[in-house]
Amino acid sequence: MKKAVIGWMLMCMLFTARADHITGGEMNYTFVGINNGLYTYQVTAKLFMDCYSNRRLPNPAYFGIFNRGTGAHIMDLSIPMARQDRLLLSNPSPCITNPPNVCYDIGLYNFTVNLPPVAEGYLIVIQAVYRVQGISNLTPGYGNIGVTYTGEIPGTATEASGPQNNSARFTGDDMVVICANNSFSYSFAAEDRDKDQLRYSFTNAYIGGSGGGGTNFPPAPPPYASVPYGSNYGPDAPLGRNVKINPTTGLITGIAPSDGIYVVTVQVEEIRNGVVIATQRKDLQIRITACTIASASMPPEYMLCKNTQTITLTNLSTSPLITSTNWELFDSKGVSVYNSNNTTTSYTFPDTGLYTIKLVINRNQQCSDSATSLAYVYPGFVPDFIVNGICFKKPTQFFDASTTSYGLVNSWDWNFGDGTGNDVSALPSPTYSYVSMGLKTVRLVATNTKGCRDTTYKNITIVDKPPLSLAFRDTLICVPDAVQLKAIGNGIFSWTPGTAMVNGNTANPTVTPGTTTTYTVHLDDNGCLNHDSVKVRVVDHVTLKAMNDTTICQSDTIGLRLQSDGLKYSWIPTSQVMNPTDPNPKVVTRFTTSYQVTASIGSCTATDQVIVTTVPYPVANAGADTTICFGTHARLNGSTEANAFAWLPASTLSNLKILDPVASPATSTAYVLSANDNRGCPKPGYDTIVVTVLPDINAYAGRDTAVITGQLLQLQATGGLNYQWIPSIGLSNPGIANPVANYPTPSTGISYKVLVYNDAGCVDSAYIKVKVFKTMPSVFVPNAFTPNRDGRNDLLRPVAVGMTRIDYFQIFNRWGQLVFSTTTNEHGWDGTIAGKLQPSGTYVWLVKAVDYTGAPYVRRGTLVLLR
């Protein structure tokens, strides 16, 4: 039952503490004394939490104690929270624009622990879930990541008095206010009651135990993995490469990155008698906001050490409270060489040297500030290094290859990228043995005696054996030929067996075995070993058998084949072989040809041949292409000597069993004649005829019309290229599209037929009827109509004679309502309005027109609608 209660308490604590709210932590301890051989320590731990998370800090919290060297579990402790404090930025500086809301809840945990001294020492651990989400310097999409905070108690192995140690204790203000892209400083300083030497550095933040966070209560044993840093960041550069930490004071300075949340972990090493006896860590998630500070903000130094002597200066603070800017540059003697009041300015130094840059803003005003920086103008400094040896747990040698045009390279800061904390060196050409495999980013920060400093990075891959590859793993030679073996790698080579071999201690020995032999190459890279083998097969002749002779259709492509152990091949005639060195090439054979192949293994050769006989394709002639008029036919005229033939497509052909069928396509069509015979070529021959069908002619002669005697009538036919009017009565020219007609006598109607031809001579026809009246220009309107839909006299139409146009023809009922209107000749009224029948009775009509002489014509009258 007791286990169930404890499990229930753990589950409750997990769900109350589990959240994305932990923003930092640290731990320290004080040595109290010795009692019955046990060393007593008073331990204090802090957990930081975002005030705005609506979460709770763990209460109680679980601490674990482990052997620092072996990771063996010693004990777990459940510690209630001593108190919870709140840290709030309540009175920001007036020189900060858009000050951030900074608020942390800090949980304090105190407890006493009694431990016997051991050689390795102890590690005190607390873990929690989770860190705040959206941390900007971690890999995007990392999800929830737990936290691990530690305190180290040294053992007797590193220092006899180590177990009586008082840990270093961070004394810096926990309140952090940093504005994005502005210069800043923040102290991670610590104090040590034992007066040990303290050394500060950035280090990797830990995730919550080996499981990556989640449910690590009580804490999981070491070692602890690093959080996944994103590109441009890392354990040694958690805020980017523009932010540094002073190893002596713990002061962080530089230019802040863009706004976001950044995890920053600083370790302070306690050094006693020249030996690091313990390391304490402080971990914070620092919130950088888009505020600005009215400040003179510059990098602490400008390195013009590569290839330029021109500097561009700009205040890194973009605060709107900055009203004036002054730049002044001084040489090494303090003499002013340049000044400017511009916000951004550039200057080219006339000579090399060390210069001082001074920036003053808002001189004699509120929020005035000044800063100085140094410019190192010594172009020609290039940091570089060479790596030798990439084997796991074997020495890797790093050789400084930095060059400088001024002074001497005198300082080297190496980080070998192994993530152990001990993977650093200050030697010019150090040696390091990697404890883990994989891709490592090696960093070298080099300086010279002129003060120039620059950084270079290189990626190397640490493996468990040196890379070794062979140019080939199997080859063939013919007695008595020699072959050169080829191995690729770095290190010392040796080959076995050494018989019939020259230069056996090189990467490329020459061998002359009398029988098939397997040679093994051994590579030794600083004690890191690898090996591989190559088989040299030996024969005394070349085996070659070409394919049987064959017959193909003329000009076809065929693949030749052979069986052989040859290494090289040569086919002739080369003009017909697509790749003469291919053992199985493709050839194009237009006439019967004997193809000869020579196979060789070194100095041994063999020859064989293949005869390819060609048979011509069956000849099919579909005839010449032709063009036909729309709706007409074409007779095809094919020919062949083959004993079988076929036409496609069949749907528009009159007879598929003859060579000259009639084609009746509705649209342009390609007809294919295929021919087969039994003369040896099994493939058909093809030919195609295209029957082009011209478009249908859309002949038009115009609408029927009426004129008066003496009135000229302009006819207009369309739809083709050539025209012929029949009969030619009254026409000015019956052979054009638009003749003029003139009639001296009246007629009840002259019917014209116009023949319309296209450019191919195809013809179609259209008709028009012309009535001729002997009268003055008039619009005739019937005086009555019977719209009863019997097909007779159902419409009342105006008939215009001798008129150029009708402006309007209108009909009104007896109440003056307009019931019909038109401007078109012979367009009639059916006796309805909007589909509704109108009553019998008398209606008034009105017409306005213009006759062919241009004179106006206006008339009115009455009509009777009868039902």
Short description:
2% of the residues lie in helices and 48% in strands. It is an all-beta fold and 867 residues long.
Give Rg in angstroms.
52 Å
Mean pLDDT over the full residue set: 90
- The overall strand count is 73
Low-confidence stretches: 1-19, 210-216
Measured distance between first and last alpha carbons: 111 Å
Protein described:
With 867 residues, this protein is mostly beta strands. It has eight domains: 266 residues, no CATH class; 84 residues, Immunoglobulin-like (Sandwich), CATH 2.60.40.10; 82 residues, Immunoglobulins (Immunoglobulin-like); 72 residues, Immunoglobulin-like (Sandwich), CATH 2.60.40; 72 residues, Immunoglobulin-like (Sandwich); 74 residues, Immunoglobulins (Immunoglobulin-like, Sandwich), CATH 2.60.40; 69 residues, Immunoglobulin-like, CATH 2.60.40; 88 residues, Immunoglobulin-like (Sandwich), CATH 2.60.40. The chain is built from one helix and 73 strands. The strands form 23 sheets. Strands 1, 2, 5, 7, 11, 14, 17 and 18 form an eight-stranded mixed β-sheet that branches. Strands 20-26-25-22-23 form a five-stranded mixed β-sheet, with no helix packed on it. The chain starts with a helix and ends with a strand. The N terminus is likely disordered.
